[in-house]
């Protein structure tokens, strides 16, 4: 792509834009070879035009070669760029002051790619276990509520694949790191633990969940020895290879490492009582890095929720700020560790930490990175449009059964208190 500048007497300069990869999202940096250098205001206008065209969120981009920083542009000059940059076929936009920016390149291809993305069929993956909790308490009411909203607001008749944690799913990672999810209570097999109320028990919680989903024509996958996260990651890869878009329905932040143009997350928001989509665009806006860099960052600073300690536990001065700075320069944890083993990459405390605790960090990566090699293969009938005719009856029966069980428990408690 070429950007040319003309103002007053001819200043024709080629500015080559290099795209710092955040998958398909463009974060523009300008590398300029300018001789003679154009007047500063003209250069500002040119850079502002580029920034305006690609979004104000990139005003932090620096202009390599002349040490200019877009952050320093006066606000009134930025306001000058609030022009209508219509999608003309010539890609020419008039800028105040007689400056004209001509963008020549692959924008038509980008638009075509967006259209193709929008036409891709979606496949939803339902991470069931987190939906069966209200806070830290196991609750089939929570499951029924979120499933009902999910079918009504999100998936409709599009294909849905539900995934449950398999027996012993945590064991592989706990062998590597004993503290991994050690504080989490195992998903309760029985909803009601009081044996005196066994006659009120509606059955195994896993069985109830499975029955409801299958009545709603949702295949349920559970593979012993594997967490649901790894099964989902494996199936998502297979779905994307077949040309579908994958949408993961889960509140689990671990799935953010899978986000791409073809992989999205939809999260349950309890405070709003609805599901909300979370895409690559949202991810970049929140973290200012690509998903692989975020995984590397979590490996360095740790993850308290999953019981993975960060390097600050052994090197207190090594915090998030240092980790972000190093990862922005090197891209990934492995590249950073390899660089630190042969040359100086930072201050002495960081350098020593990366060399002395490389195995510590690689262990964290092995624990936090989702596996995509689970022995499971996508079935063609899982990708068919879902028959929704049984949804209402299946969910109504679930809520009716839960209501009756609650009444039974209340009656038994009242009887016990009188005795």
Question: Strand count, sense and closure of the main sheet?
Answer: 6 strands, mixed
Order of helices and strands: EEEHEEHEEHEHEEHEHHEHEEEHHHHHHH
| Mean pLDDT across every amino acid position | 75
Please bin the fraction of helical residues.
40-55%
Question: In DSSP terms, counting alpha (H) and pi (I) runs of 4 or more, how many helices?
Answer: 15
Strand content: 15-25%
- Indicate the radius of gyration in whole angstroms: 27 Å
Strand count: 15
Biggest sheet, spatial arrangement of strands: 12-11-8-13-14-15
Q: Given the C-alpha coordinates, what overall shape results?
A: globular
Indicate the structural class.
Answer: alpha/beta
Low-confidence stretches: 1-44, 55-106, 186-199
CA-CA gap between termini: 84 Å
Topology:
Elements: E1 2-4, E2 15-19, E3 28-32, H1 40-54, E4 62-64, E5 68-69, H2 75-80, E6 92-95, E7 99-104, H3 107-119, E8 122-127, H4 128-131, E9 133-134, E10 137-138, H5 140-155, E11 160-164, H6 171-176, H7 205-215, E12 220-222, H8 228-241, E13 245-249, E14 263-269, E15 274-278, H9 280-287, H10 291-301, H11 320-330, H12 333-342, H13 348-356, H14 358-368, H15 391-418
Parallel strand pairs: 3-4, 8-11, 8-13, 11-12, 13-14
Antiparallel strand pairs: 1-7, 2-3, 4-5, 6-7, 9-10, 14-15
Helix pairs in contact: 5-15, 7-15, 10-11, 10-14
């Amino acid at each position: 792509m070429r950007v040319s500048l003309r103002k007053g007497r001819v200043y024709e300069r080629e500015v080559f834009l290099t795209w710092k990869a955040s998958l398909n999202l463009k974060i523009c940096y300008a590398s300029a070879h300018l001789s003679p250098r154009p007047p500063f205001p003209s250069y500002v206008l040119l850079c502002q035009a580029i920034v305006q065209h690609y979004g104000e969120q990139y005003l932090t981009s620096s202009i390599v070669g002349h040490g200019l920083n877009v952050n320093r542009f006066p606000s009134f000059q930025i306001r000058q760029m609030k022009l209508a940059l219509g999608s003309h076929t010539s890609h020419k936009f008039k800028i105040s002051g007689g400056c004209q920016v001509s963008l020549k390149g692959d924008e038509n291809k980008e638009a075509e790619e967006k259209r193709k993305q929008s036409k891709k069929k979606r496949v939803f993956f339902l991470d069931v276990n987190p939906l069966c909790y209200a806070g830290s308490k196991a609750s089939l009411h929570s499951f029924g509520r979120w499933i009902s909203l999910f079918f009504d607001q999100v998936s409709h008749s599009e294909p849905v694949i539900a995934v449950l944690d398999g027996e012993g799913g945590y064991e592989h990672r706990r062998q590597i790191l004993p503290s991994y999810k050690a504080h989490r209570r195992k998903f309760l097999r029985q909803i009601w633990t009081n044996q005196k109320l066994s006659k009120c028990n509606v059955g195994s919680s896993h069985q109830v969940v499975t029955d409801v989903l299958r009545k709603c024509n949702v295949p349920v996958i559970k593979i012993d020895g594997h967490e649901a996260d790894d099964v989902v990651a494996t199936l998502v890869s297979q779905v994307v290879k077949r040309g579908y878009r994958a949408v993961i329905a889960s509140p689990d932040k671990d799935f953010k490492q899978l986000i791409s143009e073809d992989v999205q997350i939809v999260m349950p928001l309890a405070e709003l009582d609805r599901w909300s989509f979370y895409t690559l665009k949202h991810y970049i806006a929140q973290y200012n890095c690509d998903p692989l860099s975020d995984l590397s960052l979590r490996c360095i600073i740790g993850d308290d929720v999953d019981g993975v300690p960060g390097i600050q536990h052994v090197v207190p001065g090594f915090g998030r700020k240092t980790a972000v700075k190093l990862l922005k320069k090197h891209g990934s944890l492995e590249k950073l560790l390899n660089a630190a083993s042969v040359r100086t990459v930072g201050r002495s405390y960081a350098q020593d930490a990366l060399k002395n605790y490389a195995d510590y960090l690689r262990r964290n990566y092995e624990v936090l990175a989702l596996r995509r090699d689970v022995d499971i293969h996508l079935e063609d009938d899982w990708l068919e449009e879902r028959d929704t005719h049984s949804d209402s009856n299946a969910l109504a029966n679930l809520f009716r059964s839960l209501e009756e069980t609650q009444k039974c428990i209340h009656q038994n408690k009242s009887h016990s208190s009188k005795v």
